[in-house]
């Protein structure tokens, strides 16, 4: 484990945690996310925040980040296997990295940020809003019943159905007490997790529920469901969406990955400390992602012949970015594909 020397005067009581391994695209995403935190964070938050990066390539990060308060936890093959806990569910490593952090720094809060997430504003309200009774996740998404319909639309309905069948009429133990959940309960996105240090008592429940859910449903969001169910019954759960952008869609990741390659080719280490540059870049990319999500929805709807919804989304995207000719071209192509 590579632990840099602590800064003089740094008194961290919270850990900003990243998990990034396996591919340079993942590293670049996480590096920009860290840079965006530095760009937006108030001086008071910088002084109390330790950044931990769980990665198999710390030297890649150190090329772009020379801040001594960043602590790198080397993910060896043995550690990566241990984090799976005998499963094949790679998202379990997120739970393990949070658990390891809480155990190493038991007095400190944890803010876990997915690599494909970056800050778009001052997150002081988020960081200071984490208390023993208050927690954050990225945002509330849909009920499990609604999720069944969503996943059926791309032929993966068997996963939420298996999950719903598993929780039906079943007691789930949380903190030693039984809880019942139904298809009408909500899932929350775990692109952000803001947890008070006292949440450590529930980590065994997170592991257990995650493993049960994945074993019985194979739903790839089992990890975030485990956090969702525990937090919404034991804490006051709040959304972090106003402070970050989380671009989890495949199409948006492809777009951002290319933007990140160009960005890191263009700017040196000195430029990467320019808060104005980073804030403007984050704002511009946020706009691009928001436009692209609506554009993707419009194109899919038009290609499927859902004209009313497709035209509605088309109008929304063209109003947001009316001079982007590529948007018009894609919409026309999508509509024409259906007619053929």
Précis, in short:
The chain is an alpha/beta fold and 340 residues long.
Description:
With 340 residues, this protein is of the alpha/beta class. It has 14 helices and eleven strands. The protein has helices spanning 24-40, 43-47, 58-62, 77-84, 92-104, 124-128, 144-152, 158-167, 203-217, 222-234, 250-266, 275-303, 307-320, 325-339, and strands at 14-19, 49-55, 70-74, 109-113, 117-119, 134-143, 172-174, 177-179, 186-195, 236-239, 244-246. The strands form three sheets. It has a seven-stranded mixed β-sheet with strand order 3-2-1-4-9-6-10, sandwiched between helices. The N and C termini lie far apart (58 Å).
Could you give the distance between the termini?
A: 58 Å
Question: How many distinct beta strands?
Answer: 11
Shape: globular
Beta-strand proportion:
15-25%
Q: What is the helical fraction, as a range of percent?
A: 40-55%
**Low-pLDDT segments, ≥5 res:** 1-9
What is the radius of gyration?
21 Å
Structural class: alpha/beta
Descriptive terms for the model:
single chain; 340 residues; alpha/beta; seven-stranded mixed β-sheet; 11 strands; disordered N terminus
